[in-house]
Amino acid sequence: MSEKNLKPTMRENKRYLFIETEASRKEIEEAILEFLGILGYAKAGILFLGKNVLAVNREEVDKVRAALACYRKVINVKRVSGSLKKVVYRK
Fold first, then answer.
1. 19-73: per-residue pLDDT in tens?
2. pTM of the shown model
3. 14 pairs with which residues across the strands?
4. Are the C-beta atoms of 17 and 51 separated by less than 8 Å?
5. In terms of Cα–Cα distance, which of 73, 41, 79 is closest to 60?
6. What is the DSSP string of 21-90?
7. Does a structural domain hold residue 83?
């Protein structure tokens, strides 16, 4: 059996968040889980692409930003972009 790739219209659209924080990856995950719960975390489809970059489902960006803002440690979202190149290299 051959695997078929998804059509571009069926793929999940991601947005990339550049964050500034002293919090660890575990604390960032905890912040999102506290606010959104397990189902919300799964819907957001969060991927860690480095220490400061998160990939998030397009529809859930506002919820993830709210979760990070409500956490007891300071987690600042500096930039959100649809392109990984723009979010990392833009100054």
1. 999 999 999 999 999 999 999 999 999 999 988 999 999 999 999 999 999 999 9
2. 0.85
3. 57
4. no
5. 41
6. ES--HHHHHHHHHHHHHHHHHHHHT-EE-SSSEEEEEGGGHHHHHHHHHTSSS-EEEEEEES-HHHHHH-
7. no
Amino acid at 43: K
Q: How many CB atoms lie within 10 A of CB 38?
A: 8
Domain with 72, as residue range(s), is: 22-76
- How many beta carbons lie within 10 A of that of residue 68, not counting itself? 22
3-state secondary structure of 1: coil
Q: How many residues does the chain have?
A: 91
Is the sign of the CA dihedral 80, 9, 4, 44 positive or negative?
Answer: positive
In a domain, 38, yes or no: yes
Q: Is residue 33 in some structural domain?
A: yes
Q: What is the dihedral of CA 25, 28, 32, 34, to 10 degrees?
A: 110
Number of domains in the chain: 1
